[in-house]
Write a structure and sequence with these properties.
Elements lengths: L2 H4 L1 H18 L3 H21 L13 H26 L4 H11 L7 H7 L4 H27 L7 H30 L1 H30 L1 H6 L1 H5 L2 H22 L3 H12 L3 H11 L4 H24 L5 H8 L1
Helix pairs in contact: 2-9, 2-15, 3-8, 3-9, 3-14, 4-5, 4-7, 4-12, 4-13, 5-7, 5-15, 6-13, 6-15, 7-8, 7-13, 8-9, 8-14, 12-13, 12-15, 14-15
Length: 324
């Protein structure tokens, strides 16, 4: 894991504070508004370019951990997200929707890094990436409309269009770019000149989007600073409950150590960039939803770093056995 990745939470916080200061001191809000969504769309295209669908075949080798992961991510977590929102944010509809968007979108990028750090089964983790992406693409509108209830206040058509714009278009562009570069230049050229550079632009684009978001909505953040603090408790509960449930389920299913790590990471890590992009596209008149989504990574990334050390495979032999 690179230094930049280790310090991602810090850089997100710095980008948010810098954007907040710039938005309050300078009249850049209207211009910043037009930066947020394009930066996120380019960032997601770069994330998807790095995704190799060939890994999907790995799911056949570990059906138990795959099924457990799908149940945790797409049944247990949405139910928990709804309960946390209804129980702790009942009077804040925008924060409830922001929390829901964050928690029902499993991670499709950095959980791989933390899985590798903890000596998890990276093959299964990579195989779960496209599966998680497709399922959240299909189910996210359902979750928002069903679990969001009156707090959602958005019609199905608008939400579907936003998911199409934010997920399907970048995914299609990424797949086209991967295919065309390999077809006309070869796989080695694609890895060197397409995939590797794509990995280098993801974090800068995320920071640019966060900076622009806070510069655009500086007044909103200032007015609702106390409200945003209310997100810390439900997020803390989530990031305690999911690892405990994942580890407990792993023991119940008698999963090998490396697969336990993989299950824990994929069930805990969330996809804040995708959730942020959808919030900006689907709820343009409710900026607090998008602003709330920036709080998630500030807590999530330190939690994942700590978790990687707590569940790390200690016996290399056990790790190797689990990979067979």
């Amino acid at each position: 894991m690179s230094l930049a990745e280790r310090l991602q939470s810090l850089f997100v916080a710095v980008a948010a504070l810098a954007g907040l200061g710039a938005g309050l001191a300078l009249p850049i809000g209207p211009a910043a508004e037009h930066v947020v969504l394009p930066a996120l769309l380019v960032m997601l295209t770069a994330v998807f370019v790095q995704m190799d669908a060939a890994h999907v075949g790995e799911v056949r080798r570990a059906r138990t951990v795959v099924v457990a992961s799908l149940v945790l991510n797409f049944v247990f977590t949405p139910a928990l997200a709804w309960a946390l929102g209804a129980g702790l944010l009942g009077g804040e509809p925008d924060l409830r929707i922001g929390l829901l968007l964050l928690l029902v979108t499993p991670c499709t990028d950095w959980y791989l890094v933390f899985t590798a750090m903890a000596r998890g089964h990276t093959g299964i983790a990579a195989a779960l990436l496209p599966v998680n992406l497709v399922l959240q693409l299909l189910l996210l509108p359902v979750y928002v409309l069903l679990l969001g209830g009156e707090a959602a206040m958005v019609d199905a058509g608008t939400l579907a269009e936003s998911v199409l714009l934010v997920l399907v278009v970048p995914l299609a562009l990424a797949l086209l770019l991967r295919w065309a570069s390999a077809r006309f230049k070869g796989e080695d050229w694609r890895e060197r000149y397409v995939v590797a550079p794509a990995g280098n632009v993801v974090l800068p684009l995320l920071y640019a989007a966060v900076f622009a978001m806070f510069a655009w909505q500086a007044r909103t953040v200032l007015e609702h600073a106390a409200d945003l603090l209310a997100l810390l408790l439900p997020l803390a509960v989530f990031f305690v409950v999911l690892p405990l449930v994942s580890v407990g389920l792993s023991r119940l299913l008698r999963l090998p150590a490396a697969q336990k790590v993989t299950l824990t990471m994929t069930a805990t890590a969330r996809n804040s960039p995708i959730a942020l992009a959808i919030a900006v596209a689907a709820f343009p008149d409710r900026p607090l939803i998008a602003v709330a989504l920036v709080v998630g990574p500030l807590l999530e990334l330190p939690v994942l770093a700590l978790l990687a050390q707590l569940v790390r495979v200690r016996d290399p032999h056990a790790e190797e056995t689990a990979r067979r």
